[in-house]
Amino acid sequence: MVKKSYMLFSIKDRYYAVNVDYIQEIINSVKILDIPRKKDYCEGIISLRGEILPIINGRKIFNIEKPNLKDDETVIILKNKEDYFGLLVEKVIDVLKIREDEFLEANAKNNIQGIIKSNEKLYKFKNYTVIVLDINFFDKI
Amino acid sequence: MKKEESLFDIFLYETTHLLDEMETKLLEAESNKRTNKEWIDNVFRIMHTIKGSSAMLNFKKLSELSHGLEDVYSFIRDNNIELTSEIIDISLEVVSFIKNEIETLEENGDLGKDITPLKNRIKLIFENLKNFKGKKSNYKVKIKFKKDCMMEDIRALDAKNKLEKISKVLETFPTILKGPDSCKEISEKGVSFLVNSDFKESEINNMLKKILFVEKSSVTPYEFKDLKKVEEEEEEEIEDIKDRKHYISVDVNKLDNLLNTVIELVTSRAVLEDRVLKEFNKSEEIENLFYNLNERIKELQENVMEIRMLPINRVFSSMKRLVRDMSKNENKKIELKFVGEETEVDKNIIEDLYNPIMHIIRNAVDHGIESRETRENLGKSSVGTIILKAKTEGGNIIISICDDGKGLDRKAILNKAIDKGYIKKSNREITDKEIYSLIMKPGFSTTETINEYSGRGVGMDIVYEDVKKLGGVVKIDSKENTGTTIDLIIPLTLSIVSGIKIISNNISYIVPINSMKLIFKEKREDIVKDTNGNMFIVIDNINYPLINLNSYYADSNYIDNRNKIIMLIEASEEEKFAIAFDEIGGEYQVVVKTFPKYLKKCTKSLRGLSGCTTMGDGTISYIVDVTGLALELNKKVSE
């Protein structure tokens, strides 16, 4: 079975991964600008080489409590169909090679109850629970 | 790789243009009731060209149709025959027929529909023309009465009357026939007439001989060209050549590319200026250089925009045909007038204006303008009028469609709206404008019943949507038995705006410079609040509604106590209001971008904003939608 590459990132003590096919680039310490009548999960927008991209706050969509300091400053630029947007996370860790049969089915009994969407897949990684996100996950926001 | 234009594409392009030209010409002839040789030549040439090119591409039916009309016009031209409404009608029908069919035309195919009925009718008209008595010619008729016959003037008038039965008398010599002076002249020199007739010389002369006291009469063919006219014509021709402009047709994609490049140039310049001013000491030289660069880019941009501009007349004149056909069908007499048809609008906008205007005109003809009898009973002129107006005002183009028909039925619309639950029955006064804007609600207009009472509203929701897509708004005003006026207010160009940067709550906004009237620091005592919490500001003893941008563009319950800057804004002549914000920046030329799709997901609402832009320093500003704000304020005040 073919191994696919996934980008592993974290917010506080939670681990997530996204297929690298959807990742355009990773940027650090970018100035995020406020927008009028901002929704809760949105952090603002950035201007990347003339393009305006919205930034989604990872903590808000994954229900992780607010940091004491400003910990999150890494932005992963994702491409969902024709749209580009940024996901604000604490840090990017590594790229994982995963075979599809290594995925565990999402289990409601895990600690991540309430976060899992139907098309997310679970993966065990050195005792950490990594939630592998499907790109469609962002459609539902 | 560029795709080569095929012969077929060129044929389609050319033929469509020729048909448009022909249609305009026909309608022109119909309303002026006058044609000249040049006109006939033109129409003949158009038919001839279509015939030729369609034969070349082996579109037999098309070629046959145009051949038929070509014959008719060539006969008219060669025989000086006056155009009849019958010929104009059939020509217009052929034009519509080809226009409709050409869209389905495919390479190596032919027109799908049967052309026999049309062809037969053309044939019939042609036969009738040929049977028409000979050809019309101009003659000079000279009559000398017998000496001492007395009352020469009366006799000359009698001769004129008799001539008028068989010809058209164009001129008489002397010009005034009656009176003692003419009497004397006629008895000495005789009387002459210039006539246009389809009778032969001998036939006219025979008729003249039957007139009493005619001593001598002569009829000679006359070339109708006196010296003065010949000179004028020649002069005109010379002027024509001088005034003739040279045109080339350009692929629209090339223009779009050019515009995009200019837009990028505007942004690059802004970035460059920002960097240079940050890294080097500000010197006069650098500032001058940037000033120059700025001006050139502005010029370039204006020129590119201008190339893309087309007179709105393109849309307007296509309505002529619609009004003509519809009013003929419904047996109404309607005059369509244009005001400001030379107003220029961006090409992209012009194309999208056609449908909304057409819908409104259709409504006006169908339901707005009453039948001739009704109009006469009401003491109105039996001819209805629709006026299509275009003008630019404050960065917008305003297109007004006014009719002098029966107006909207306020009561019926109101009842329907209450029925449908669009508005609650309440005691509060509902303004006319509010009621009329209800007909733009989807579902409201499409129902048959409302059509019967209100006589208006087919597809008004479509109009509303179309105009909204162009970033514009629709305003409706109406008065019973006086008529309805519908205004479409649309931003002139969608891409580059010059504006003032303002900052509110750490977000920067751009206000289009042409709507800005005044800027000053707030004085608390000038600001008043009404019982509903709406704010007003008094400027020079006039009360204007005031919007605090910090709370308007933030969450609902934003409290701030900062000192504000106030800007008075003029959305249109009647709509002025003020905004309050924290700081003011400089003047900028910005490229307006539509909001990225994802942005709409990240904000609760983009109300009051018409786009966003990247500034030179990489930050983002939002374009304040001045017209939208004015509209919102209007609604608020009337509530």
Keywords:
A: 141 residues; mainly beta; five-stranded mixed sheet; B: 639 residues; alpha+beta; Four Helix Bundle (Hemerythrin (Met), subunit A); 5 domains
Q: What is the share of helical residues of chain A?
A: under 10%
Q: N-to-C SSE series of chain A?
A: EEEEEHEEEEE
General shape of chain B: elongated
What's the CATH architecture name of the largest domain in chain B? 2-Layer Sandwich
Task: Explain what you see.
- The complex is a heterodimer of chains A (141) and B (639).
- Chain A has one helix at 58-62; strands at 3-11, 14-19, 23-28, 42-48, 51-57, 74-80, 83-89, 91-99, 121-125, 128-133.
- The N and C termini of chain A lie far apart (32 Å).
- In chain A, a hairpin with a 2-residue loop joins strand 1 (3-11) and strand 2 (14-19).
- The radius of gyration of chain A is 15 Å and the shape is globular.
- Chain A is mainly beta.
- In chain A, the strands form two sheets. Chain A has a five-stranded mixed sheet with strand order 8-1-2-10-9, with no helix packed on it. Chain A has a five-stranded mixed sheet with strand order 3-6-7-5-4.
- Helices cover 4% and strands 49% of the residues of chain A.
- Chain B is α+β, with helices and mostly antiparallel strands and 639 residues long.
- Chain B folds into five domains: 2-132, Four Helix Bundle (Hemerythrin (Met), subunit A); 137-221, Histidine kinase CheA-like, P2 response regulator-binding domain (Alpha-Beta Plaits, 2-Layer Sandwich), CATH 3.30.70.1110; 252-308; 312-491, Heat Shock Protein 90 (2-Layer Sandwich); 496-638, CheA-289, Domain 4 (OB fold (Dihydrolipoamide Acetyltransferase, E2P), Beta Barrel).
- Chain B is built from 21 helices and 22 strands.
- In chain B, the strands form five sheets. Chain B has a six-stranded mixed sheet with strand order 14-18-19-17-16-15.
- In chain B, strand 18 and strand 19 form a beta hairpin.
- In chain B, helix 1 (7-32) runs antiparallel to helix 4.
- The model of chain B is unreliable at 226-230 and 446-457 (pLDDT under 50).
- Chain A binds chain B through residues 31, 33-39, 41-42, 45, 47, 50-54, 56, 82-85, 141, and chain B through 264, 267, 505-507, 553-555, 593, 596-599, 601-607, 609, 612, 614, 618-620, 622.
